[in-house]
Design brief:
By secondary structure, the chain is of the alpha/beta class. It has a single domain, classed as Rossmann fold, CATH 3.40.50.2020. Helix content is 20%, strand content 29%. It has 3 helices and 9 strands. The strands form 2 sheets. It has a 5-stranded parallel beta sheet. Strands 1-2-9-8 form a 4-stranded antiparallel beta sheet. The longest helix is centred in the N-terminal third of the chain and has 17 residues. It is globular. It binds inosinic acid. Inosinic acid (IMP) binds next to β5, α3 and β8. The site of inosinic acid has 18 residues, from β5, α3 and β8.
């Protein structure tokens, strides 16, 4: 199956059923983790909205949920290297365990920047749950603890992830064709 967005062609990579399995596995691990107190989940917008909605419905631990819009991609297919939006988060995080929810960890810059920002505000701990992980482009220092699936270093869309704001609504995940 293929989708076309503008001049770009994407082919089916991970079906909605497979995504559901991965999200279940992540939720189980989060449920089994010993949390010193209810974690504060931070959903990184926009890409993580679908992952978050599915994940929290499978969580059995007490928690609270906040949303933070961060961006480093603009409308390009690669990270700009600068994360924007960190200062817009005004929720008190002191003495809380934090669980960052990311659709996809690519270079790791987004989670690394947010982690450092939170650690300066006196959080107890920072964990990361991500649906997808690109080990080939990861440059961070700490691997995400709760990870659905590793994928090659190619651009993907669907299940919340976009190309120039298109494709977020797709229930499956598609990969850019002719990507190497
Ligand atoms: P990082 O900071 O390089 O790890 O990039 C993380 C963010 O970039 C994610 O939250 C996504 O919004 C976006 N991103 C990274 N790779 C892709 C992709 O293949 N498709 C769509 N968005 C991506």
């Amino acid at each position: 199956m293929e989708v076309e967005i503008g001049e770009k062609k994407f082919r089916l990579m991970i079906t909605a059923d497979e995504i559901a399995l991965r999200v279940n596995e992540i939720a189980q691990k989060i449920n089994q983790q010993e949390w010193p107190e209810p974690p504060l989940l931070i959903c990184i917008l926009k890409g993580s909205f679908m992952f978050t909605a599915d994940l929290v419905r499978r969580l059995q631990i007490p928690h609270s949920l906040e949303f933070l819009q961060l961006s480093s991609y603009a409308n390009n297919l690669t990270s700009s290297g600068e994360v924007k939006g960190l200062d817009s988060f005004s929720v008190s995080v002191q003495n809380r365990p934090i669980l960052i929810l990311e659709d996809i960890v690519d270079t790791g810059l987004t989670i690394e920047s947010l982690r450092n920002h939170l650690l300066h505000q006196g959080v107890v701990s920072v964990h990361v749950a991500c649906l997808l992980f690109k080990p080939g482009s990861f440059k961070g220092s700490i691997l995400p603890e709760f990870c659905g699936q590793s994928i090659p270093d190619n651009f993907v869309i669907g299940y919340g992830m976009d190309v120039a704001e298109q494709g977020r609504n797709l229930p499956d995940i598609y990969v850019l064709e002719n990507a190497n």
